[in-house]
Structure formats: C-alpha cells, structure tokens
Amino acid sequence: MRAAEDPARRLRLLRALEKKLLWLSAWTIHNANHIRPNRDGLKVGGHQASSASVAAIMTALYFDILRPQDRVAVKPHAGPVFHAVNYLLGRQEREKLATLRQFGGIQPYPSRVKDGAEVDFSTGSVGLGVALTSFAALVQDYVHLHGLAREGMPQGRHVAIVGDAELDEGNIYEALLEGWKHDIRDVWWVIDYNRQSLDSVVPDRLFGRIEGLFRDMGWNVVTLKYGRKLEAAFAREDGEHLRRWIDDCPNSLYSALTFQGGAAWRAALLAELGRIDGIRAIIDPLTDEELGALMTNLGGHDIETLTEAFRAQEAAGDQPTCFIAYTVKGMGLPFAGHKDNHAGLMTREQMEVFRAEMGIRPGHEWDRFEGLDIPEDELADFLAGLPFAQKLTPEGRCLSASEVPVPATLSPPRLPPNRMLSTQAGFGEMLAEIGRGGRETQAMASRIVTTSPDVTVSTSLGPWVNRRGIFDRHLKNDVFRDAKLASAQRWGMSPKGQHVELGIAEQNLFLVLGALGLADRMHGARLLPVGTVYDPFVNRGLDALIYACYQDARFLLVSTPSGLTLAPEGGQHQSSNTPLLGIAQDRLASYEPAHTDELAILLRHAFHHMQQPDGSAVWLRLSTRSIVQPERVLDPAAVIAGGYWAVAPEPGARIAIAYQGPVAPEAMAAFEALREEEPGAGLLAVTSPDRLHAGWLASRRAARQGPGAASSAIERLLAPLAPGAAIVSVLDGHPAAHAWMGAVRGQRVVPLGVDRFGQSGDIPDLYREYGLDTDAILDACAQALLES
C-alpha cells in the first residue's frame, strides 16, 4: 500500500523526515562553526534553535501539503532547514550544505539571487518576506484576471513561515490592512509561536491581541496549541486541570521548565496539582523523559495536528489564513526553551550526544537517510512522489517570459517655442499618450501596471488611470461619473484595470513593486511596473525598496516632486539625500533629467532596461518646476550613460559648470555670464551621477586587472578640461552626489547643493538661501578661478 493510502505509514515517514531535517539543519550549522576552518576567528552563527522550532512545520508543508504552484517565504532563521528540505528533494547538492555562510556558498537567509531557483522569496529583512506573500498573491490575481498567465498553470497559495518576533514589525500590519482593502486570497501565514525573540521571551497574552487583528482584517485564524498526546491527556479524568494550568502558565516559566526537563515539570505540577487524583494518574506512570515529552507536545511539533489543520483549511477555500503554531525554540536540542538560545550553538560535546541520539555514524553526517529506521528506497520513492517534488514547469520554479517590445523612441510632449514644462508633467503626458495604445505602444501599454501610495493625482498619474482604470478583483463603478458629477478623475474599478491604488504606507508601495517586478519569474508573465511617490518619502519605504532590489525585482520608480524646489511645501516635503541613495543602491539605475527630451529617452530606456538579463530597476527623480524646453537633438547613449556636454569646453579649459535637474536655468544663466570671462568654459548636463559613478568604478576595476580597459563615460567627458581645471557643480540635492568627480582626473570640484533641512518659501528665496541661484554659482566659479 502506498503512503498516500496508508495514514499510519505516511505519518511514520513524515516523522522520520522531520528527524532528518532536525539533524541536517543542526549539523550544517555545527559544521560551519566547529568543523570548517575558521581563518578570521569570527563566530559564524546559524540559529540552531530557530531552525529546530520549525522542523515539524516545514516537514508538514513541504512533504505533505505544498503543490508545485505554491510559493513559500521561509522565515530567515530557518534557512538551514530550507536547504535541508531541498537536499532531501534532490534539489540541493550535498557538497553545498557544507558551504553555509561561506564565500560562494549557501546564504544565511534564503536569497533568490544567490541561492538559486528554489527560493521563491528572499528573506532576511525581518517581516518583509512575510508581507510580500500577500502582494504576490495580489499580483497572481492580476496576471490571471488579465489573461496573462501561462496556459494550464493553476493558481497557487502564497505561504509564509513566520517567526513570531517578526510580528513586531510595523510593515506587517500595513500589509494586512492593504490586503484587506484588496480582498487578497490564497495566502497562508504559519506563525512559529515559540514565544522567544532575540533578547527575551514574548510577553504573555500577546497573541490574543494579534489573533484579533487578523480576524478584523478578514483572515481565518487557526490556533494549533496542543499535540495529540496532550489532547489525549486533557481528555482523561481531571485532564481539564492540566489544560488550564498550561494555559495559565507564563511564557517565561514554560520556557524555563522546558529547559530544565521532566523532573522540573514534575515538581511544578505536583506543587500545584498534586492533590488531584486524575493528574497523578496522568503523570505518575511517566518517566521524567516521558513527562518532558508530554509537556512539550505542542501543536507546532505534532505532525498529525499540523497536517490535519492544513488539509482542513485547504478544503475550506481560498480565504487568507493565519495558523498560530505553538512551538518550543530549540525543540529536540540541549538548550530547548532557554531564553538565551537564539544565537546558541551546540558544543562539540553536546553534538556528540546529539549524534548518538540521532543514530548518525561518524563520517556519515551528510548521508541523505542516515540514522533513519526506514529503508532508503521507501523514503526515496515517497519523496519522489510528493506533489511538491514535481516540476512546476519544464524550466523549474523560476520561470521566464518573453520581452515586451518597446518602441525605438518615445517622443516628449509637443510644445510651442519657449513653452515651459516640468519633468513631472512631461512624465504624466507621456504615460497618458502611451495609454492611448497606439500601434507602436499598444503591446507595451498592455503590460504597464502603475501603483502609488495615495498620491496618484499629485504625481501626474491621473490621465493614465483615466485611460486604463483601477485594478480590483471586483467590478466597482465610479459613483461620481454615474451621478454625472464633474470630476477630472474617471476611475472605474475592474479586474481589467491597470493601476493598483494603495494607501499612504510607502513600505507597501515597494513591496507591491517588488511583487510586480518578479511576475515574469514567479508567474511567467512579463509586467512593466511603474510606481510613483513623493521623493522625500522614498526614505519611509527605503527598507522595502532595498529588499525589492535585493531580489532583483524589475520596476520603474518615479519619485516626484523632489528637492527644495517644491518650495512652499516646506522641509518635511523636501528632499536632499535621495541622489545619494540612487548612487549607493545596487540593482537600481538612478536618473534625474532636467528637460523632457532627456526624460523621453530615459523613460524608453527604463522600459527596455528592466527587461534585460543584465538590467535592473530604474529610478527617475522628477520635479514640479516648469522650465523652458530647448529645441535640440540629443545623443540617447550619452543621456543614458549619465551626462553630456550641453556646451563642450575648449581643449585645456580652466573651468566648467555641471548641473543636474531643475537648477538648469540657473546653471545656464551662470554659464552665459562665465563665458564672458572664460570663453572656453564648458557646460555639463548630468543626468545620472549614479551611472557615471558606476561606470567609473567598473572601469577602474577593469584597469586593475591589466592593460586595455576602456575608459568610462565620466573620464571621457572630463578629458578636455585642463588637469587642474575647476568643476563647479550644482543640484537640488546633497552636494556629495557630485563631489566624487574630482577623483576621476584630479580636477577640483566645487560642489553646490543642499545639505540642510529645507523650509517654506518661493524658488528665488530658497535658491538664494541654499546657494543654488545664479549668483551663488558665479561666486563659486570666481573663487575657483582665483584659487587656480
């Protein structure tokens, strides 16, 4: 009889695999810390206790419940268990297990980019991987409702294995509320409720509050507190007293008794319940070891309890569900329950005792089925027949999608001579034109999906949304339109809409962009996500932005309005550090165009670049300041590379002005005055200090490898200037974004910018106060020339 047809046999196999996960995860960490050579003496770490607490949960999920189409975010500290799961499934090399936390080896926390296709969601930034499952489910709905899903690919569940301390993160609750708004489906969060965090034991009764929050957000909540053995004990005469005692036992006392073991449990129970005959009948026949096992028989460690609960919810439908699985941190290890066990590691002596308990022979630590009392062929056949062991597609779990064609060029808005326009308004007009779905842009327009945290109108997305509608799983009419009330916004909601409207929480914006930007690899459907946000509030979602980039999600971020050019809005809505963020952030190409012809080049580039194997996400920093749009022909390659000479300097020129973004008029005016004294001066338009800097670093790395390295764009740009020339740079942002250019060829840079909190005012007053106006630029030029 097959395991699937024999519940008792299946249970025996699952318990054996749980034992194997416990051993492999503990040994993998032990090997990294005590067996592998340690050249620098630093503790390697690895979280044996946190891994042990989820061994049964991950056994029940991966070896019984999960299907190929399901996607899982594993709690960060359970990475070793995750790698052990894949090893047993034949998806991880044996040799790789020995490389945990080693250069080029498996990562401490599961990483899509560094650990390979088996990782659905990178985790490690606590709480974000959990929340991302909700938004990935939303994206799955979007893909299916728009008819973009691969033929025959069923919808899957999005499962997060959650450390209970992760629920201290505020982004969890922002995501819960947003998920409720969007009526998310097919999401499971399985909380490893071991009641211990990094520094302490979790406060008592906390989860009563958390359970209520989940229910208020429309989730089903399933609490798995006790296993089969304890439930059987409760069912005996006077067993309700034992249940009540455990229910009332403070978390700290429960943890301490767990660490102390059966004798301590006996003493505590006898002291409080020893006069109850039924209690004595339950505990007296048990050895200390058996009593300890009974008192720690919690739902999160009981395979039967777990699989039964998962299967019941599986049959109940697609309602989002939170499973609160009570566990013991370090279950099965010598420091189980100890409040200091989070970073604890078994000593060599403890490992030898553990090895004997597990039946592992020296030299056979990595053997796939070592120590199990079930024939290897039987275990191998069982694993091979599991639903999750089957391939999702012939290419595996990491899918792909064809590139969406992008027109060779995008045109900036057509303007009469000397008409003024801001880059923000130009962006809105260009996106609205794409939304018309003309012949050249129709395919691209159908794959663009926009999103914004309650600033859709004020970031110029309104015309696009009017054309393309808001995405909602349910059809909802625009009440104002139906009532014939005047409104510039015609925002009907339907499953075919192409804008995801969010609340104000910026963390959610970047999590949605991350989920949308992985749609090709998660769902086999290429999307072109565009997210807009006020530039200063990128900082409020920065953790989630970094997290999205870490996963190599592809999207276009448009942050606008930016800088103190926003003027009357004041310092809280003004930004200075964001150009530095753009330079520093990996897998994110950052630009700040000054004019709409540059913007048209960069917008087209973004839609192309985010689809390339060596591409990345793209960030456009835009402004609300309207400036005169020049009539000219630009070299797209130079704009994309990060800069070009608006006016080229004469060879050997002593000075140049470099500008970025909306300060272009002041820079140009200063340049015209400067040329009267220095006719050979140059005017450099910087569209991306990030791309210039990245290109320079790459060129220097190549040069260190040997002769023949190509020079970078910034080296070529600055080459005409004299070796001792001065470069006066100006941007509405932190001056350090340009200061590094002095290191390229040893020329002197006088960087002007904003390094203080802004304030309210109009542009002339603010530019004068913060040294961005024409006079300040000319003063800097005069000083630089005097010092030359």
UniProtKB/TrEMBL annotation:
InterPro entries: Dxylulose-5-P_synthase, PDH/Transketolase, PDH_E1, THDP-binding, Transketo_C/PFOR_II, Transketolase-like_Pyr-bd
Cofactor: Mg(2+); thiamine diphosphate
Pfam family, one: DXP_synthase_N
Entry-linked SUPFAM superfamilies: Thiamin diphosphate-binding fold (THDP-binding), TK C-terminal domain-like
Alphabetic keyword roster: Isoprene biosynthesis, Magnesium, Metal-binding, Oxidoreductase, Pyruvate, Thiamine biosynthesis, Thiamine pyrophosphate, Transferase
EC nos: 1.2.4.1
Binding site for Mg(2+): D164, N194, Q196
Top-level taxon in the UniProt lineage: Bacteria
UniProt-listed GO biological process terms: terpenoid biosynthetic process; thiamine biosynthetic process
SMART domains: Transket_pyr
Residues of the Transketolase-like pyrimidine-binding domain: 421-630
MF terms in GO: 1-deoxy-D-xylulose-5-phosphate synthase activity; metal ion binding; pyruvate dehydrogenase (acetyl-transferring) activity
Associated pathway: Metabolic intermediate biosynthesis; 1-deoxy-D-xylulose 5-phosphate biosynthesis; 1-deoxy-D-xylulose 5-phosphate from D-glyceraldehyde 3-phosphate and pyruvate: step 1/1
Catalytically driven reaction(s): N(6)-[(R)-lipoyl]-L-lysyl-[protein] + pyruvate + H(+) = N(6)-[(R)-S(8)-acetyldihydrolipoyl]-L-lysyl-[protein] + CO2
Function: Component of the pyruvate dehydrogenase (PDH) complex, that catalyzes the overall conversion of pyruvate to acetyl-CoA and CO(2).
Family, as annotated: Belongs to the transketolase family. DXPS subfamily.
Complexes and interactors: Homodimer.
Protein's name in the database: Pyruvate dehydrogenase E1 component
